[in-house]
């Protein structure tokens, strides 16, 4: 707003500005100016409402009257009925404050003001005008920032756009030449102005000449002739900025890219590359050039120099390899920058003989193995491999065998079973360009047993398996480290690597390592004669829980105990190093730990002191990663009597077999002794010797045994009486068995004798427990008769072998009744026979009768002092065995 007035001599004036409609004070200021003019910039657009201006002069203490009001009409007058918004389309810098006003249409009510998405607080300027102020504005969008006004119905009735941005601020002006004539200047755009459109964008001039191509990121401008000084001016609606640069021509040379690249000569290991210069001036300039070559293996860059350089030779190429090359150059003197890269050129080198294959010997078993070699890579084959030639040569036997194998075969099986000398295996690879150098491996005459080599564990460290070993004196050609899947048994995928002789450690890396798989690593010392196994390791890339449970889990009852047995998990399913086993008692809802077996070789466990019932047990193998799913087995404990009966039956069977063997052996031995003794006795003759079989001792019927209770036992009436077969009660009508010898039968008789008898004490506890005839009820059993066999005639001789005259075998066949000095069978038997006193030696040596009630042997007591003091308990033991007592 510009205000002018006329006055004569005053130098100070008061200016007052009011909003006309509401008569609100907007500004009251005193200006000391010698001019009759005053300018004021209103923060509110002048279109928003009408303003009234008054002026008065001031001279010392004298103040004039206010002038008449001069009104600047706004656009909110009644004759302007439409809605309006001000200011419109204004460009302001970032961070500025700005006031917007909304003139509401005549007859409507004001609603709200919005700055982008922000609801603003309004200020009423007049009946129809409302204003708001936005402070510290941020940069706007390419299309500007919208400010809108709405009525009481929230309908937009007016709006305006404001552009908020920055003045230009370019940097880094650099000018150079590409052809030694013209100039090309480049600069950086700097910060974004956020101002777009033909009227608001930034315009550039270089040395006063417009740069119409300087747009967005292409900040460059050229001149046809070199000028050592340059000035760049950048300008937009918010301001302008200037940059300058200066340089000599020879210091700012950046050559253009070479053209027409060619390869005049191409060989297996090198090739030449040439190009042309578009501008002739570079043919007279000392240049430095870079040639970048790229293959499927790698990319490398080589540098060459020369005056007007246009040809180079590429060395150390790979045969039968495709290459792509490109070239760029610069000024060797006062080097400024590298020029642009040329378009790439592709070519392929010629083939050459392949390199010698990497060969190794691996044994599948003690006698079978394979000679292995690695497939040649493209950089090693030097062309398409057509096949392999394998030569087996034995210098000791002076024999040679040649084999030709296709290119897809990388191994040769060998058998060292029948080989008596070492064999050298030579492998050569062949392609159309020729054969490779031979690769040799020696199969020694004898292979060392690898079972004696201790196996250690190695852990994966994230990048590989670190291995180290002690240096070996016989490692003339270094060391070989091989590895394979431990669970593999045949045609395994074996990998290996070679280590220099002065190195005793390596990091084994492979893309074929998998979690949960055990690998075996071996290091060998290599020489021209053979290889020596130094160390061996087992390792997992990552340990997992076993993928299978323990196999063949089975329970076995042993009385009140249960023994659990199982087999080890197969190696391919272990998933890691088995550290042990856990045994659980399985309930309906949980597992109760019974044992943690830390010895992985132990595959059994006994659960003790269980009561009768059903049990379920779970056995789990565990590794460092955890336990497997667990194998479960059930068992019901049976009563212990069943197992006791089984033990008794086994014991009885064993004793029966043993007794049969002893009986057969003893019978043959007795017969032999009897014959020898009889022949050696003078005047004797064998009346009847007819041992057709063993003595069959049959028990008499129960009616033939009479137990007589007598408180006084008279030993003088102890006699054996022969009873005829027909006199036996209850056997008269039975037919006699003519095929068997007569049975030896015993009867109880009480024979009264005179005062020579004396009471005999009862037998010991062993006799009481062995036979019914020696009961604890004071029942004395005497054997009163022996039914003689028709064939067997026992000798009646004194047990003490007295010096009595022998008249012949007939006298021994008919001993007098009541005489006990005759034949005493088995006088040395001790237990379970009638006990004899000191004078009853003869009576104690009666034979070996069988008790009908107990089915046990009744043998006489030992009459010796030792026998009296320590009676044997053989019969007690035998009785306990039959009754199952301990």
TrEMBL record:
Coiled coil: none annotated. Residues 724-740 have a biased composition (Acidic residues). The keyword Transmembrane applies. SUPFAM superfamilies: Fibronectin type III. It holds the Pfam family LIF-R_Ig-like. It is found in: Membrane. Keywords: Glycoprotein, Membrane, Receptor, Repeat, Signal, Transmembrane, Transmembrane helix. GO terms for cellular component: plasma membrane. Residues 764-776 have a biased composition (Low complexity). It comes from the Eukaryota. It is a single-pass type I membrane protein. InterPro entries: FN3_dom (IPR003961), FN3_sf (IPR036116), Ig-like_fold (IPR013783), LIF-R-like_Ig-like (IPR048497), LIFR_D2 (IPR040817), Type1_Cytokine_Rcpt_Type2 (IPR052672). Belongs to the type I cytokine receptor family. Type 2 subfamily. This is LIF receptor subunit alpha a. It comes from Oncorhynchus kisutch.
């Amino acid at each position: 707003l510009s205000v002018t007035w006329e006055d004569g001599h005053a130098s100070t004036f008061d200016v007052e500005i009011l909003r006309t409609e509401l008569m609100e004070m907007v500004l009251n200021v005193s200006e000391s100016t010698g001019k009759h003019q005053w300018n004021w910039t209103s923060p509110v657009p002048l279109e928003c409402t009408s303003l009234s201006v008054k002026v008065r002069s001031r001279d010392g203490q004298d103040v004039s009257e206010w002038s008449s009001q001069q009104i600047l009409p706004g656009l909110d007058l009644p004759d302007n009925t439409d809605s309006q918004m001000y200011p419109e389309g204004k460009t302001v810098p970032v961070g500025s404050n700005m006031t917007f006003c909304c003139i509401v249409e005549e007859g409507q009510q004001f609603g709200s003001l919005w700055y982008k998405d922000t609801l603003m607080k309004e200020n009423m300027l007049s009946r129809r005008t409302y204003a708001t102020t936005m402070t510290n504005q941020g940069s706007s969008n390419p299309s500007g920032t919208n400010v809108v006004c709405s009525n009481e119905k929230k309908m937009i009735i007016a709006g305006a756009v404001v552009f908020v941005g920055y003045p230009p601020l370019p940097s880094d002006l650099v000018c150079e030449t590409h052809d030694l004539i013209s100039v090309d200047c480049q600069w950086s755009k700097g910060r974004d102005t956020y101002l777009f459109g033909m009227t608001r964008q930034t315009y550039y001039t270089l040395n006063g000449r417009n740069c119409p191509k300087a747009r967005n990121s292409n900040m460059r401008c050229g001149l046809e002739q070199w000028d050592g000084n340059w000035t760049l001016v950048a300008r937009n609606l918010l301001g302008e900025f200037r940059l300058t640069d200066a340089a000599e021509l020879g210091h700012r040379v950046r050559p253009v890219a070479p053209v027409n690249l060619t390869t005049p000569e191409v060989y297996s290991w090198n090739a030449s590359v040439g190009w042309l210069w578009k501008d002739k001036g570079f043919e007279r300039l000392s240049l430095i050039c870079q040639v970048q070559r790229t293959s499927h293996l790698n990319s490398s860059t080589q540098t060459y120099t020369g005056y007007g350089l246009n040809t180079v030779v590429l060395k150390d190429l790979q045969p039968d390899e495709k290459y792509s090359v490109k070239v760029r150059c610069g000024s060797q003197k006062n080097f400024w920058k590298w020029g642009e890269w040329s378009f790439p050129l592709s070519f392929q080198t010629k083939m050459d003989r392949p390199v010698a294959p990497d060969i190794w010997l691996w044994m599948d078993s003690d006698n079978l193995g394979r000679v292995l070699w690695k497939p040649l890579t493209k950089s090693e084959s030097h062309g398409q491999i057509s096949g392999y030639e394998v030569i087996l040569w034995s210098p000791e036997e002076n024999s040679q065998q040649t084999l030709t194998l296709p290119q897809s075969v990388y191994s040769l099986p060998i058998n060292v079973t029948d080989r008596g000398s070492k064999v050298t295996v030579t492998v050569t690879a062949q392609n159309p360009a020729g054969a490779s150098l031979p690769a040799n491996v020696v199969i020694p005459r004898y292979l060392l047993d690898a079972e004696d080599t201790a196996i250690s564990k190695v852990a994966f460290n994230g990048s590989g398996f670190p291995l180290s070993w002690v240096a070996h004196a016989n490692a003339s050609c270094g060391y070989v480290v091989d590895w394979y899947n431990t669970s593999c048994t045949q045609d395994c995928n074996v990998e290996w690597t070679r280590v220099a002789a002065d190195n005793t450690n390596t990091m084994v890396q492979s893309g074929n390592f998998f979690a949960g798989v055990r690998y075996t690593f071996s290091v060998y010392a290599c020489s021209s004669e053979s290889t020596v196994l130094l160390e061996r390791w087992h390792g997992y890339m990552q340990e997992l829980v076993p993928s299978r449970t323990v196999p063949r889990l089975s329970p076995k009852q042993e009385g009140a105990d249960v023994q659990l047995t199982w087999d080890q998990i197969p190696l391919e399913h272990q998933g890691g190093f088995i550290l042990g086993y856990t045994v659980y008692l399985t309930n309906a809802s949980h597992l109760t730990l019974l044992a943690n077996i830390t010895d992985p070789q132990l595959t059994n466990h006994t659960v003790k002191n269980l009561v009768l019932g059903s049990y379920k047990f779970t056995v789990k193998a565990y590794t460092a990663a955890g336990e497997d799913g667990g194998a479960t087995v059930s068992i019901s404990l049976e009563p212990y009597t069943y197992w006791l009966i089984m033990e008794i039956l086994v014991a009885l069977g064993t004793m029966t077999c043993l007794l049969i063997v002893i009986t057969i052996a003893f019978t043959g031995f007795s017969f032999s002794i009897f014959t020898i003794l009889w022949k050696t006795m003078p005047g004797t003759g064998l009346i009847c010797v007819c041992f057709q079989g063993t003595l069959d001792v049959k028990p008499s019927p129960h009616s033939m045994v009479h137990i007589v209770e007598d408180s006084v036992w008279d030993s003088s009436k102890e006699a054996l009486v022969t009873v005829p077969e027909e006199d036996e009660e209850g056997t008269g009508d039975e037919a006699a068995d003519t095929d068997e010898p007569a049975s030896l039968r015993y009867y109880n008789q009480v024979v009264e004798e005179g005062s020579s008898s004396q009471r005999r004490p009862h037998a010991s506890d062993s006799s009481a427990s062995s036979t019914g005839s020696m009961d604890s009820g004071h029942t004395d059993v005497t054997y009163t008769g022996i039914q003689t066999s028709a064939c067997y005639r026992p000798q009646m001789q004194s047990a003490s072998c007295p010096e009595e005259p022998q008249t012949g075998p007939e006298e021994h066949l008919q001993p007098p009744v009541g005489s006990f000095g005759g034949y005493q069978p088995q006088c040395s038997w001790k237990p379970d026979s009638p006990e004899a006193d000191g004078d009853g030696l003869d009576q104690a040596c009666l034979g070996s009768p069988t008790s009908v009630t107990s089915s046990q042997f009744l043998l006489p007591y030992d009459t010796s002092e030792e026998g009296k003091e320590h009676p044997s308990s053989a019969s007690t033991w035998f009785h306990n065995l039959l009754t199952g007592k301990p």
